[in-house]
From TrEMBL:
This is Uncharacterized protein. Coiled coil: none annotated. One of its GO terms (molecular function) is quercetin 3-O-glucosyltransferase activity. Belongs to the UDP-glycosyltransferase family. It comes from Eucalyptus grandis. PANTHER family: FLAVONOL 3-O-GLUCOSYLTRANSFERASE UGT76E12-RELATED, GLUCOSYL/GLUCURONOSYL TRANSFERASES. The keyword Transferase applies. It comes from the Eukaryota.
Length: 452
């Protein structure tokens, strides 16, 4: 068996997808593999790039000229991902070829290319260079399962659903209802093509998953049966990796001092993640719902996430006076520390997969308000299967927000959800300890990489 210290001449090239919810698990995986002795190269786009300063031991390799600027502001996710992959393949191939040429002189070698499945062009680039490759999936297995059913559901007329609020079950897709399908705006065909490319990973040596058996073991067995390559549930990656700074935006850490002054489990943390947005009316309803709940709150309002404004200029008149010191609004929170803080007792979330894992890992129950794509699927699992979240449905309304906050933070239902979430927290802690499911999967993955 190869000694850990001998692995530094084995380079792993990790190809990141340029969005926060994707960069975070990829950097966590990189930190984890670095801690196992491998050398790490992060191949990244020049926009939304990770900050190298937090990772002095990694090499950062920008992929040049991958997307025209005006494309990014179009907001058309399917077109952005399709172009990103078309434009990155050539430069990525060149990058790999340059690294391999350098390696000849230094006795190191690229052991494997690990790519975010949304950067599926890396599979083709690595295949061309005859390099082994593995795919990292940054969403849940539940999402993958429904993604793979979309072509059939589309042919049968179930997707996209005619009524986006319908609670009718989707045939063969328990526990999902029509409203839980991964919806996106406009014509579904372009995004379905991107999803089909993401799922088509026939030539990879393995699939790595940011999930954990105690949440998705049954689903992972289901997927593994259909999958011809080894499959590793390694997560939650933010828990198994040595702490690493993964935020693209600057974190406002002084909110932690404010949390220090609050009672245990008293604060509701609110965040929509890095992409979702709301309009002015929804923003005002949220503000008053939080204020009138009487519950202390920490609200992360990402600049640009309220449509038509830079940041919080559209907060309703009288709001700041009404909340006094019972609420804090920040641009970007140190979310993992916030969720781990003893004062935080609930999380109003858009149910992005990272936020979902981060909250469950800390035993924090949720108000689930999904916005699009996999968030709908995650919300359904949170509320119906794992039963650690309550759903906030329909148009945002301050009275309903107020009630939901009270139900979660002070009601019997919230208490039960908190107990279930705490039990998951314990199970996750066991999974990442020696002999736990994620710990074992990581050891197996390291052995597989060495064998390539
Ligand atoms: C996107 C998709 O929307 C999501 O559904 C998918 O699963 C991953 O890609 P995003 O919307 O940003 O991600 O949500 P999420 O997956 O929850 O990731 C957001 C990340 O930003 C989390 O790791 C969270 O800790 C971090 N964050 C968010 C902060 O650090 N501070 C904040 O104020 C808000």
């Amino acid at each position: 068996m190869e000694e850990r210290g001998q692995r530094s001449n084995r380079r792993l090239v990790l190809v990141a997808c340029p969005y926060q919810g994707h960069i975070t698990p990829m950097l966590n995986l990189a930190s984890l593999l670095h801690s196992k002795g491998f050398s790490i190269v992060i191949a990244h786009t020049q926009f939304n790039h990770p900050h190298p300063s937090g990772f002095p031991n990694f090499t950062f390799a920008p992929i040049p000229n991958c997307l025209p600027k005006d494309f990014l502001s179009s907001g058309d996710a399917a077109a952005i991902f399709a172009s990103l992959n078309t434009n990155c393949e050539g430069p990525l191939r060149q990058l790999l070829s340059d690294m391999m040429a350098q390696d000849e002189a230094t006795e190191s070698k690229i052991s494997c290319v690990i790519y975010d499945t949304l950067m599926y062009c890396a599979d083709a680039a690595a295949h061309y260079m005859k390099l082994p490759r593995m795919a990292l999936r940054t969403s849940s297995i539940g999402t993958q399962l429904i993604f793979s059913e979309l072509p059939w559901l589309r042919r049968e007329g179930y997707f996209p659903p005619k009524d986006h609020s319908s609670k009718d079950p989707v045939p063969g897709a328990y526990p999902l209802r029509c409203k839980d399908l991964p919806l996106f705006n406009g014509d579904p065909e372009p995004m379905m093509r991107v999803i089909a490319m993401m799922l088509d990973i026939k030539t990879s040596s393995a699939i790595l998953w940011n999930t954990v058996d105690c949440l998705e073991k049954q689903l992972s067995d289901q997927v593994q049966k259909k999958c011809h390559v080894p499959f590793f549930s390694l997560g939650p990656l933010h828990k198994v990796a040595p702490a690493s700074p993964t935020s693209i935006l600057e974190e406002e850490t002084d909110c932690l001092l404010w949390l220090d002054k609050q009672a245990n489990n008293s604060v509701i943390y609110v965040s929509l993640g890095s992409l979702a947005s709301m309009d002015e009316r929804e923003f005002a309803e949220t503000a008053w719902g939080l204020a009138n709940s009487g519950q202390p709150f920490l609200w992360a309002v990402r600049p640009g996430s309220v449509r038509g404004s830079e940041w919080i200029e559209l907060l309703p008149e009288g709001f700041k006076e009404a909340i006094g010191d019972t609420g804090r609004v920040v641009r970007w929170a140190p979310q993992k520390d916030v969720l781990a803080h003893r004062a935080v007792g609930g999380f109003w979330t858009h149910c992005g997969w990272n936020s979902t894992l981060e909250s469950i890992s800390e035993g924090v129950p949720m108000i689930c308000r999904p916005c699009f794509m996999d968030q709908n699927v995650n919300a359904r699992y949170l509320c119906h299967v794992w039963r650690v979240g309550l759903e906030l449905e329909g148009d945002l309304d301050q009275k309903e927000i107020e009630q939901a906050v009270r139900r979660l933070m002070a009601g019997e239902e919230g208490k039960e959800m908190r107990l279930r979430a705490a039990a998951f927290k314990d199970q996750i802690e066991l999974s990442i300890k020696k002999s736990g499911s994620s710990h074992t999967a990581i050891e197996e993955l390291v052995n597989l990489i060495i064998s390539l």
